[in-house]
Write a structure and sequence with these properties.
This protein folds into 2 domains: 83 residues, no CATH class; 207 residues, no CATH class. A hairpin with a 2-residue loop joins β3 and β4. It contains 12 helices and 4 strands. It has a two-stranded antiparallel sheet. A two-stranded antiparallel ribbon has the order 3-4. 57% of the residues lie in helices and 5% in strands.
Length: 335
């Protein structure tokens, strides 16, 4: 291997994926630190009083700073390191993005409902309704907005540019494994974590990555991620080990072996969820939903090697025809 090929892929002429990852992470850190300081300065003074380390205030600031940092670093890496248009990051607000986000939200809430139904049917859960006062509804609305922010941030981090550039450099299965493992380890600081809980978070990472591969967009995994978390808040069960710190209209009481109910880690600590996630992963892989995995559309060959950006690309797999613009990416002009 020559010195040049150590840095650059001779087939594409681009920086190798490992170096692209390092350059992206360096830019992400360079943007995140000043943005975090800026948000600490700009947020209202009454939010800064008596805040302990690791408080919700600090978490909110981190997530608010992370979103523009992740988008900025991702767009920079796409355009400078890979010569791809910025909307290939997967969060374009054109085309079918709202439909995909809504589908993700519905799917996430349905999964929470199915989990609760299975536990209720096995006499391992009961739901206690409470009155919904104005303050409770306001807090619930704030929680919904926060969980959408969490879903957006964590999907940009684990299924955004880092995930996407690894796809173009290494095998998709290895990319799914590495990013899902990182997603699970990201939750190691949560309270009451267990090996089973981290395994389920790993499986969630695989599912969310597959949804990106089948939809061609981050909006579907963002919606599912946000709705899954919010559904647990609504039922007042721990979210990845984190207790819900305010009253909600419902309380799900989990009864029985924590291996089945999840215990203090919440639904994500349940072996029943493991089976459910494996079933949903199989459904996503083998269904005829969305873009075919065998197309390797994420390599963006028509963009990477075309002198002029095409308006759309077309692929045919096993007599099925796919047109990229139908999936909400119809602004592929001179981005």
């Amino acid at each position: 291997m020559s010195w040049h090929t150590f840095w650059y892929d001779p087939k594409s002429g681009l920086l190798r994926s490992g170096w692209r990852v390092l350059a992206y992470l360096a830019m992400l850190i360079a943007l995140f630190i000043p943005l975090t300081m800026l948000f600490f300065l700009l947020l209202p003074e009454n939010m800064k009083l008596d805040r302990p380390p690791g408080s919700y205030y600090g978490i909110l600031v981190s997530y608010l700073a992370a979103v523009p940092a992740l988008i900025g670093a991702g767009v920079w890496a796409l355009r400078v390191l890979e010569r791809l248009p910025s909307h290939t990051l997967g969060i374009s607000l054109t085309g079918a993005w709202a439909r995909q986000l809504l589908l993700g939200l519905i799917t996430g809430l349905a999964m929470v409902g199915l989990m609760l139904g299975l536990l209720w049917g096995g006499r391992m859960a009961t739901v206690l309704p409470h009155g919904a006062e104005k303050e409770t509804l306001l807090l619930l609305g704030a929680a919904a907005a926060f969980m959408l922010l969490v879903g957006l941030t964590e999907e940009l981090l684990f299924r955004g540019y880092l995930f996407q550039t690894l796809l173009r450099g290494i095998d998709p299965l290895l990319t799914l494994f590495l990013t899902s493992a990182a997603f699970a380890l990201f939750h190691l600081n949560n309270d009451n974590w267990s090996l089973l809980g981290l395994t389920n978070i790993f499986l969630f990472g695989v599912l969310l990555g597959l949804l990106y591969l089948r939809s061609g967009s981050l909006w579907l995994p963002i919606g599912l991620h946000a709705a899954w978390n919010f559904g647990q808040v609504l039922l007042h069960v721990p979210v990845s080990g984190n207790e819900v710190p305010f009253p909600t209209p419902f309380t799900a009481v989990l009864i029985g072996d924590r291996l089945l109910t999840g215990g203090a880690f919440g639904l994500e600590g349940s072996v029943i969820l493991s089976a459910l996630l494996l079933g949903v992963v199989a459904l996503v892989v083998y269904s005829r939903f969305g873009l075919p995995l065998e197309s390797r559309w994420w390599e963006w060959r028509s963009f990477a090697f075309a002198p002029v950006m095409p308006r759309n690309w077309d692929i045919t797999v096993n007599s099925r025809h796919y047109q990229w613009k139908l999936f909400g990416h119809d602004q592929a002009g001179s981005d």
